[in-house]
Amino acid sequence: MNPKFRKWMIATTLALAAVLVAAESFALPLPTLLVGIDDIEGPEQMSSALQVLLLLTVLALAPSILIMMTSFSRIIIVLAFLRQAMGTQQTPPTQILIGLGLFLTLFVMAPVWTEINDNALKPYLSEEISQWDALKEAEAPLRKFMLRQTREKDLALFVNLENNEKPETSEEVRMQTLIPAFIISELKTAFQIGFLIYIPFLILDMVVASILLSMGMLMLPPILISLPFKLMLFVMVDGWYLTVGSLMKSFS
Fold this sequence. Notes:
Layout (H helix, E strand, L loop, with lengths): L2 H23 L22 H21 L3 H15 L7 H32 L5 H19 L2 H10 L13 H40 L7 H15 L2 H12 L2
Helix pairs in contact: 3-4, 3-7, 4-5, 5-7, 6-7, 7-8
């Protein structure tokens, strides 16, 4: 064996032995960890671990709540139809459409958020109402908004599919019944608006295609010629103003 390697092995062994002896001489006791559950009398007594758990749960469900229980789905579908009808591919970019959809959703849902903040969040943080009462107060504005945007036919579909007692009033409809009815109502409304947006651009495409066909230019894509005219038409009629204005009025 190489003498240098042997000396290195001996030095390493002595160093490890010294570390073990020092650890035994200066060993520190480990702290005891106690885990328990106790009753709470107010929101301030909730442990930080449960607060973090509650926050993570809300953040995990936030995309579904934002998409399915607000005006976001109708807005983003209509904007996607508009971009596809114009034939501009990825212009405006998807990030811009989503950002515009989010801010329009905040604008539409502002009265609902204000009512939830005034009637549920603030009283709960002030210890005026319990957690269960706060959830009930927060549910009421959302229920009112969704009922106003849901068609009776769609709501009746899910009510009839339930095996429970039929509700006599709209206030007795359960949220798990109202939410899917609201979603399919939003999808139908969004597709109706998208169809109306498609019509002028489709007519322009047909006119351009007919002109190119009559000129014998079969190899030239009609979309290449119609795209500048679509953009000019959209700008001349102030298309963003009309589209966004119609969307906002559809929630009235």
